Amino acid sequence: MSEFDYDLVIIGAGVGGHGAALHAVKCGLKTAIIEAKDMGGTCVNRGCIPSKALLAASGKVRELKDTAHLKDLGIQVQDLQFDESVIANHATNLVNKIRGDLTNSLKRLNVDTIRGWGKVVDLHKVSVLGDSGEKIITAQDIMLCPGSIPFVPPGIEIDHQTVFTSDEAVKLGSVPQWVAIIGSGYIGLEFSDIYTALGSEVTMIEALDTLMPGFDPEISKLAERILIKPRDIETYVGVLAKTVKPGSPVVIELADMKTKEVIDTIEVDACLVATGRIPATKNLGLENVGITIDRRVLFL
What we know:
By secondary structure, the chain is of the alpha/beta class. It has helices spanning about 15-25, 40-45, 50-65, 65-70, 85-110, 165-170, 185-195, 215-230, and strands spanning about 5-10, 30-35, 110-115, 115-120, 125-130, 135-145, 150, 165, 180, 200-205, 235, 240-245, 250-255, 260-270, 270-275, 275-280.
């Protein structure tokens, strides 16, 4: 009999934790996975899956709006309409299916799924704070797969309605007439595509000197030529969103990135803060096992 409850306990049931659990079971390990929110983590619930579903649906709208091209093909489309709530439901339904599939795959392999907030107590102990209180479980090994959260720079106020991150944007609660997107990484680029396809005007604000600074230069040039220049997108580079105030309208102070002096103020209907993601390491108990964090890490 083992002195531990499990051979392996995994904190976080995103795609990393889920994949690790499947591999652990194949290796013959008694495994548990702890999740405080939704099975599938960021990718399934607030990232890759819903955003690609929105891109697919909005892309169809964009194709059907290109009446000149369709006419050349002998196709005529009149009075094009779309229901943004149904588009949002399409993404939600896909998320729910994949989340269910992930949950069922763990059940079939007898991986124990423990609901609650997992926190490392020491090298072999994890506390789980759930609806019924706190309990301690032990393991030979503990794996941390906590995923990521949006990074919100100083000076930006989030109200999750008029000023929001991609966590809210994937729900497509509305299609604003004019939306500012702070950041031109892959998140900002994807949502500029979605919003312009559905009829929004977009202002993209990038603090660094070039758009898509984290991309390979050739890919960046290609993306700018195909995805930005032909569309209703105004761009700022080398410009910092110094302050963002939620409301109707949203008020954004723009400053020169080098001097930090305010150069303009714009008012928009909504603002998506797409300034990257950071590891979700808060309140994991890392200090209890001597782990220190490099706060410079940023996923664009």
